[in-house]
Amino acid sequence: MPQNKSTQDPASAGATPDSQRKYAANRFSIAPMLDWTDRHCRYFHRLLSKETLLYTEMVTTGAIIHGKGDYLAYSEEEHPVALQLGGSDPAALAHCAKLAEQRGYDEINLNVGCPSDRVQNGMFGACLMGQATLVADCIKAMRDAVSIPVTVKTRIGIDDQDSYAFLCDFIATVAERGECDMFTIHARKAWLSGLSPKENREVPPLDYPRVYQLKRDFPALTIAINGGVKTLEEAKQHLQHVDGVMMGREAYQNPGILARVDSEIFDTQSKVMDNVAIIESLYPYIEHELANGTYLGHITRHILGLFQGVPGARQWRRYLSENAHKPGADVRVVEQALALVRSPRAELA
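and the corresponding structure tokens:
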């Protein structure tokens, strides 16, 4: 079950101590995804991979400073875990970064890639690409406030500002003035109007060579690539050109892929757990969360895709979807769903 920060050290919670790492955690990471990568999702993903860097959903500075909930909550087992912030006020960002460091986060990431209207109205996200100096000032303020890494996730351009020269100017300004040395680049530009966030993830064409060139032109910077990565083989190919790979929706919709990340991407000797064992190891967390008022469906929605392509996967998804949200639903619902996967008469997904 999740441990309180004051009672358990991150290393003993399942994360590999930095001194024992062959590769940095950002060699492979899971993208921050709004409404998806919440703390329940991250706990589940950590069961599959001990090495992968996990990101929170984007959290705005306003929510942290003025919100009534605890927007920095996470489980110790999630390490290494990064907080993605949304905002454009250097002082507010520095304040939130300091709070996050005090809570034990391993990295602070500034969102300069989300193109939604709501985010633009708040003056953060992809629209900040057009204000490199402001982004630099935000990063510098956070770097001055904390000792943990402060990074940027951005696009290759916005609207008609999509030349390679524009991207280089942005990176150079943020790296030099903001002293930022780690960037994750979504290899698509963003249209700030005319496309929905979903369309902005699919319509603008991917340009991986541009990100590769960025790494060649800025060799001292740590550059990770994001966008359209669906297999570990693709990730390995990218790693021949850049320092890290960030996987998004594929990792969420087909989480079983994460079970091979530690051995294939981080070259560890860790044993790969089978999917049934992964779910069974989740039971204590589920029981702990239910005892604290969490609804079962808030946890199980993240595990629906685990048995993709396995006989019984369709029944697994259906049973959880139909029963996890019922009043009083508990871990027995997951046990019943798991029995459907184990059944030799289960239909193929």
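(Above: one complete record from the training split.) The beta strands are 28-30, 53-60, 81-86, 107-112, 150-155, 182-186, 222-226, 244-247.
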